[in-house]
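During the reporting period the student researcher (J.K.) took over the structure-prediction task from the postdoctoral fellow and processed the backlog of single-chain submissions. One of the processed entries is reproduced below for the supervisory committee.
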Amino acid sequence: MSELSVNHLLGIKYLKKEDIKLIFETADHFKEVINRPIKKVPSLRDITIANLFFENSTRTKLSFELAQKRLSADVINFSSAQSSVKKGETLIDTVNNILSMKVDMVVMRHPNPGAGVFLSKHVNARIVNAGDGAHEHPTQALLDSYSIREKHGEVKGKKVVIVGDILHSRVALSNIFALQLQGAEVMVCGPKTLIPKYINKLGVKVETNLRKALNWCDVANMLRVQNERMDISYFPSTREYTQQFGVTKDLLNSLDKKITIMHPGPINRGVEITSDVADSDQSIILDQVENGVAVRMAVIYLLASKIKQ
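J.K. obtained the following structure tokens:
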């Protein structure tokens, strides 16, 4: 397979297994590029990309921007906090204004689920979903799977537990889709109040005992509690959450085997994981950050190659 089966990256649920394989093989090449003394390639010299972030983001935005610049694309950054959106401009107006500047691709983060799909139907540009509400965050799931593949050789057959706030997490949903597509077994673990009702339909295991979940898995992906998305209290206190669902070095050392720890960031140190876990040799958190640039370069490059056709 030499090209993606999709014209946009709107969610993992639209991808085929072969798409993920192609993205990873392309990312392998770009990972080698970003470790060279000269980290740029001229691949997208004639492509203009607009980054539209209607929600705050530091790491994802920086990662996309770095990926775009490494590919020599022209980049326009747009943040809704400083824009006419505050004055009531609609999403379509905003995008049409940017497209009239002859933009080829839009990377968008938006608080509303499905915003990327809506956009892809109304504008003539490639769309990359950088997170839509509590729905999907496809590039995060791809870089997580890529990091597991790098550490463990392959994703197929691996047991991965996603721990924490599953209910509000777009990372969890995208990860479930991506891991299952590649043949991994998936479990979610967290307080019952933070596990969505529909989870059983997705064919994942559910565990509320953290020690049991960690003993089962090869990889634990620790999510932060998304306080900004919570309108009610889902558990008594942060301290109680940490006692039940926080990973400490003592807990890791007491397990039957050595497991890999991941985290999509930003980390609430001392809540879902302690600093000595985050910084330990079992953690691949910094690898995830590096891999994020390579995977996003791959996605942008593969979608841009469809523009030139």
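The committee noted the following: The two ends are 16 Å apart (CA to CA).
J.K. will present the remaining backlog at the next meeting.
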